[in-house]
Amino acid sequence: MDKITAKTIDEYIATFPPNIQAILEQIRLTIHQAAPEAQEAISYQMPTFKLKGNLVHFAAFQNHIGFYPAPTGIEQFSDELSRYAGGKGSVRFPLDQPIPYDLIRRIVLFRVQENLDRAAAKRS
User: Fold this and answer.
1) What is the per-residue pLDDT for 1?
2) In this predicted model, what pLDDT tens digit does every residue of 14-67 receive, in sequence order?
3) Do 76 and 91 contact (CB within 8 A), yes or no?
4) Alpha-carbon gap, residue 29 to 5, rounded angstroms
5) Strand 54-60 relative to strand 86-87: parallel, antiparallel, unpaired?
6) Distance of alpha carbon 51 from alpha carbon 54, whole angstroms
7) What contacts 3, CB < 8 A, 6 or more positions away?
8) N or C: which end of the chain has fewer CB within 10 A?
């Protein structure tokens, strides 16, 4: 795939085939529902949601969707994420398997609380 230089999440999603666009839109909706206050952005050339700092990133690749909820998001859900490949702050959801939208929702809720707690601690 060509390097994407999208400036919005809409532009990013539009660069993919319809079947991948549908998955990306569902992930976007899932994040919006879990974090309605979060702002959309493109960061590291990926769709990003920000709320008192980076919340989560996601991206489409040839064979998987990359989801990047920071290392704490991976650690907190390590048992459920153990069936997926990934790294310290990332997980790969294979495109030939159902995308775990409920798990994404719960990870986003965790990250929202984490960012809000961190912001509150900085204020006090």
Assistant:
1) 43
2) 999 999 999 999 999 999 999 999 999 999 999 999 999 999 999 999 999 999
3) no
4) 22
5) unpaired
6) 6
7) 45
8) C
Q: Is 57 exposed, middle or buried (0-12, 13-18, 19+ CB in 10 A)?
A: buried
Burial of residue 32 (number of CB atoms within 10 Å: 0-12, 13-18, 19+)? middle
Q: Which residues are paired to 86 by β-bridges?
A: 91
| Residue 84: both structure tokens together | 């997926």
Residue whose token pair is 């929202």: 112
Three-class SS state of 68: strand
Is 7:27 a contact under the CB 8 Å cutoff?
no
Give the CA count within 13 Å in the CB-facing half-sphere of 115: 20
The string of pLDDT tens digits covering residues 76-118 is 999 999 999 999 999 999 999 999 999 999 999 999 999 999 9
Give CA–CA dist 115/53, Å, rounded.
Answer: 7
